[in-house]
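thread from #wetlab-drylab

HS: before we spend reagent money on co-crystallization trials with nicotinamide-adenine-dinucleotide, can we at least see a predicted complex? here's what I'd submit
DV: go for it
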Amino acid sequence: MDSNATRRSFLSMSAAVAAPAILGAQSPNDTMRVACIGVGNRGSYLLRNMLKVAGTKVVAVCDLLPERANTAAQAVEKAGGSAAVYSDFRKMLEERKDIDAVVVATPDWTHRDVDIAVLEMGKNLYAEKPLALNIADCKMIQSTAKRAKGIMQVGFQLRHDPNRHAAEKFIHEGGIGKVLMCHGIRHGGDLPRAIPWYFDKTKCGDIVVDQGIHILDLFRWAIGSNPVRALASGGTDLFIDVPPGRTVMDNYNLILEYPGGQRVNFSHHYFDPPGFSGDQERVFGSEGSVDLVAATWQPRMKRGLVKLEVPDAGEDSTYSALKAFAGYARDHKEPINNVDSALASTAMVIMATKAIYEKRIVTWDEVMG
Ligand SMILES: NC(=O)c1ccc[n+]([C@@H]2O[C@H](COP(=O)([O-])OP(=O)(O)OC[C@H]3O[C@@H](n4cnc5c(N)ncnc54)[C@H](O)[C@@H]3O)[C@@H](O)[C@H]2O)c1
């Protein structure tokens, strides 16, 4: 394989690519003033990590639930800062012209409206995945992001996980030769019962869209193209009407076919006994295979795992993603998980979900219109 070509393709797919020459929402060397919208389960974790990112300052927090917003403001205070508290994000965006960047972690079905409002106000945006729950909404966010003054990074934080990032770089540089197949397992316990919307497929898009998307995004990145069709089967076989009214599945199996002949094979369920199988993310190539989670590779014709060099080893992936966001916003660069990439990964999981529901092969062209 042409190592220059593969290196170039890694750079174009991963390292920051200069965005069009429009001025960012922030001048270089300034402290980035951040607001957080949605400070529940994920948003509070993002906030805690944002507070550790150098060159940033959280100045406002917003949640529909005042107690959550207050708890978030207390976390800012404990870290030595001070954040204004809001329950209406539009009011916050109107009042606080000093905000440079916004972290959005509201539920999936709200992403379109919140993300678009933030982008239209010219802020840099870190928005949680999935991009939205249908293609029309995804495209609406994409076109707004293209016109926006700020950058948009979507919360596929595993792309910034030091091990996975190093492993993907190795793959894109030709380390395992031609990528032939990816195999993933996400086996665990059920979704968090304290968060009801996770069990309503109209609000989260079901478990491929809301959960499976992380690993499937990593495989799409490793292969470097978009899948052409999905074959899949899934259902609810253990947690039937648990919790009451549940409409999301508890298991599925999925095969995605890619234009270069590569296949992704992914198994995802919620009845794994503790410590039994867990997560696996493996990419198989003509010269060897990589374990993304461990950042190890194994040559195909030789026994012996090789540990890859991992910069920032052990760093939390959410912290790494937010640190990268601060850099992209400061330099006005396109993130590796930008809106185009997020749209493709969201379309991929919408395609897979349709294949499961309709018990037939669904194509990329059909889903993308
Ligand atoms: N990247 C990851 O690993 C990861 C992990 C978990 C969740 N998520 C994503 O994060 C998002 C939030 O998930 P969660 O688990 O934190 O859910 P959650 O229900 O715990 O938190 C969502 C919060 O948003 C608030 N909210 C809803 N609408 C709002 C609005 N209009 N204005 C202000 N606040 C509003 C809610 O009151 C709640 O506190 C989802 O998109 C989810 O997919 C990502």
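DV: The domain at 15-156 is CATH 3.40.50.720 (Rossmann fold).
HS: ok that's useful, forwarding to the group
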